[in-house]
């Protein structure tokens, strides 16, 4: 049956009552109204649902919400500081790193992890890291340019 859980999302404790099988993706979107995280394939193949758990990127469609209790969850909504965009968000705008925008939250969350974990120091390395994030519009060169710029 449903169970009470508390998730720490973008620095806030959020309580919700969910089935144990509820994915983190559904918990964020359906229960917490954090719809910036997108559902593409729901099977771990597109990266649209990428968020950070304790600073590591994960596919939230493959993660049970109950397993993330006590951890620090960051979604696209948690990146900007007030009106100030995260450098990765600003770089995506500068480099036109999106067309339809559906994959963008996941791309940005993966891009931030790419830089933080030191995988963005060359084009091939960054491309490899980002390869789990699909873009149907084919904005890959621009996405890569954004990630590489933030890596410095
Ligand atoms: Fe999770 Fe596609 S929705 S990887």
From TrEMBL:
The keyword Oxidoreductase applies. Keywords: 2Fe-2S, Iron, Iron-sulfur, Metal-binding, Oxidoreductase. Signal peptide: none annotated. GO terms for molecular function: 2 iron, 2 sulfur cluster binding; metal ion binding; oxidoreductase activity, acting on the aldehyde or oxo group of donors. Residues 3-79 form the 2Fe-2S ferredoxin-type domain. This is Xanthine dehydrogenase YagT iron-sulfur-binding subunit. It comes from Hymenobacter gelipurpurascens. The lineage of its organism: Bacteria, Pseudomonadati, Bacteroidota, Cytophagia, Cytophagales. The chain holds residues 56 to 207 of 209 of the full protein.
């Amino acid at each position: 049956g449903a169970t009470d859980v508390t998730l720490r999302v973008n620095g806030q404790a959020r309580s919700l009552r969910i089935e144990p099988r509820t994915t983190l993706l559904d918990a964020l979107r359906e229960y917490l109204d954090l719809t910036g995280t997108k559902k593409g394939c729901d099977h771990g193949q597109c990266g649209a649902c990428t968020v950070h758990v304790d600073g590591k990127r994960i596919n939230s469609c493959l993660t049970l919400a109950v397993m993330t209790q006590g951890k620090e969850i960051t979604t696209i909504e948690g990146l900007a500081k007030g009106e100030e965009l995260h450098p990765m968000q600003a770089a995506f705008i500068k480099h036109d790193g999106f067309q339809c925008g559906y994959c963008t939250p996941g791309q940005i969350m993966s891009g931030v992890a790419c830089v933080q974990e030191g995988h963005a120091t060359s084009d091939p390395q960054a491309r490899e890291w980002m390869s789990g994030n699909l873009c149907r519009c084919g904005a890959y060169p621009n996405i890569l340019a954004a990630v590489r710029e933030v890596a410095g």
